[in-house]
Design a protein that fits this description.
The complex is a heterodimer of chains A (48) and B (485). With 48 residues, chain A is mostly helical. Helices cover 56% and strands 0% of the residues of chain A. Chain B is of the alpha/beta class. Chain B contains 9 helices and 24 strands. In chain B, the strands form 7 sheets. In chain B, strands 1, 2, 5, 6, 7, 8, 20 and 21 form an 8-stranded mixed β-sheet that branches. A 4-stranded parallel β-sheet of chain B has the order 14-11-10-18, covered by helices on one side. Classes of the chains: A mainly alpha (48), B alpha/beta (485).
């Protein structure tokens, strides 16, 4: 992550906490998200 | 027996060819004209560009698939359309020039009853001085370009391993580029690769783009529900850039790429430049340069094509300000208004206007993305157009009945942000509708329940799954129709 220097572009955006980062690659949680995302995509496909 | 002629064998062309043959059987003929001998799953080219995949993993030869399915294949590029025939025949035809080694340079006239133009774009590197793999920057637009880029990236990584700091510039190479998503994916895959090879601390990575703000992606960005707020994709995207330590330059029209330096103009009219050791900059797109002639052999190109070379279809091309844009401006059947047996799908059709609000620099230079129309929407419009045409060829209908407007269509986009089965991530986005409708959804332009974005390993798994599923489908393997567009 960039060093946050006042008033520079990287000073303002939100950055994820360690917990958020952990869940991004946590196998159990991501398997659940895999199912959810597939349902979302299939819902999108069915709209056509 | 009637003949459906399909120009191009990309995502849209292949979708059209397989569905057409499936619905027409042996009663009618399906002919494909493509200058390429290989089919390319273009979304995975970004992985070829980092060395994660080889070119052979994203391509396969077209001829055996067409032989298996009974589609006639000409490895040739279309040169001109003659929708009224010529002085000797009333049958419409397309003049093609062969590109296969055996027939290279010879020409032929391929007649048609119905025509689908799905040529994709011309990669217009010439629009920016010094842009492109034959000049001073790299590309991932084709598998060949991506292969070359992977080699150049490894050279830069090797220098970093020797302790030499390097600057990498990635983004768009002109003020009117589209496909910011592909450049975005490449950016984050490079960042991941540098971490994997333990040289990230030696790299300065800079994103340059013609977007007004990060997260625009050529569709004005999107609003999503996140953490109790309705948030613009700009926040989401800036967060990711900050987390990964990537600098960004937006509102930029690249004017010239020199060896080791890129000059650009921004919306304030300022002339700036950035030095780099590696530059992967996508080109703007234009039509492939097809000409059109009437029966008297007079040039009617402007009746079939917009000035940018994309084909005119049933959209509303009236020039109007951003505030007057409506979802109804967007085409529904992709039928040419003058020649009713000609259709254009995928990148080949002319969009009526941009999706992102057009911005002009104080010097008068347009700096805004042109609309994306690749991937899922491209496949859906190809399928619907093919169904309409096959219904007409089979005598079931006399005019197109199915519609595939981007204003009533959603899209799912999986943008890779690092390729690894256990540690990789991808941004998974869904958006509905693609064209914002501020009358129906006054606050955000889109349905919030169907518009979403998140980053995680699951996205990488889906991206990988899609890679294999779409290649399986494009090869017309058993039950290929189960795989949706």
């Amino acid at each position: 992550m960039s060093i946050r220097t006042p008033f520079e572009q990287t000073y303002y955006p939100p950055v994820p906490t360690r917990l958020t980062q952990f869940f991004r690659t946590n196998l159990i949680w991501q398997f659940f998200r895999f199912l959810v995302l597939n349902i979302k995509i299939l819902r999108m496909v069915r709209k056509h | 027996m009637a003949r459906l002629l399909i120009l191009g064998a990309g995502i849209a062309g292949q979708t059209a060819a397989l569905h057409a043959k499936n619905r027409l059987g042996s009663e009618h003929e399906v002919v494909v004209v493509s200058p390429n001998s290989q089919w390319n799953w273009i979304p995975s080219n970004i992985w070829v560009g980092t060395g994660y995949m080889k070119a052979e993993q994203v391509t396969f030869p077209l001829a055996p698939v067409y032989k298996k399915t009974g589609v006639t294949f000409h490895q040739a590029k279309a040169v001109s359309i003659h929708p009224e025939g010529d002085e000797t025949t009333a049958q419409p035809f397309v003049t093609v020039e062969y590109t296969s080694p055996e027939q290279r340079g010879t020409t032929a006239n391929v007649t048609y009853d119905y025509l689908i133009n799905s040529t994709g774009p011309k990669l217009n590197f010439g629009a920016t001085k010094g842009l492109g793999p034959e000049a001073n920057s790299l590309s991932v637009c084709t598998y060949g370009h991506a292969d070359q880029t992977a080699k150049a990236l490894q050279v830069v990584i090797d220098r970093m391993k020797k302790g030499e700091p390097q600057t990498l510039l990635i983004g768009t190479g002109h003020g009117n580029c589209t496909c910011q998503g592909a450049a975005f994916e490449y950016l984050f895959n490079v960042e991941y690769e540098l971490r994997r090879q333990q040289v990230r601390d030696k790299a300065r990575i800079i994103w340059i783009s013609n977007e007004q703000e990060l997260g625009d992606f050529g569709m004005g960005g999107m609003f999503i529900k996140r953490g109790g707020y309705v948030t613009h994709s700009r926040v989401f995207t800036e967060s990711l850039y900050t987390e990964r330590g990537i600098e960004w330059i937006t509102q930029a029209h690249v004017k010239e790429v020199m060896p080791g330096e890129t000059a650009y103009e921004n919306l304030d009219g300022e002339e700036k430049s950035v030095k780099h050791d590696f530059a992967m900059l996508l080109p703007p797109f234009s039509g492939v340069g097809l000409k059109a002639y009437n029966k008297a052999n007079e040039d009617i190109t402007s009746e079939l094509f917009a000035p940018n070379g994309f084909m005119l279809v049933d959209g509303d091309y009236t020039k109007k300000p951003y505030e007057a844009w409506k979802p109804e401006d967007w085409p529904e059947t992709y039928q040419n208004p003058k020649y009713k047996n000609i259709f254009a799908v995928g990148i080949a059709f002319a969009p009526p206007h941009a999706i992102s609000k057009p911005m002009i620099s104080v010097k008068g230079t347009p700096i805004f993305p042109t609309p994306p129309r690749t991937g899922m929407p491209s496949g859906v419009m190809a399928r619907q157009v093919t169904y309409n045409i096959t219904d007409m060829m089979n005598g079931k209908e006399t005019e197109p009945t199915r519609k595939a407007s981007l204003a009533h269509m959603g899209a799912a986009c999986i943008a890779s942000a690092g390729a690894n089965f256990l540690h990789g991530t991808a941004v998974s986005m869904t958006v509905y509708p693609i064209i914002p409708d501020f009358e129906k959804y006054p606050d955000t332009g889109r349905e919030l329940g169907s518009t979403s974005g998140e980053i995680g390993l699951a996205g990488h798994w889906i991206k990988h799954l899609l890679h294999y599923a779409f290649i399986y489908k494009a090869k017309a393997n058993p039950f290929w129709r189960i795989v949706p567009e």
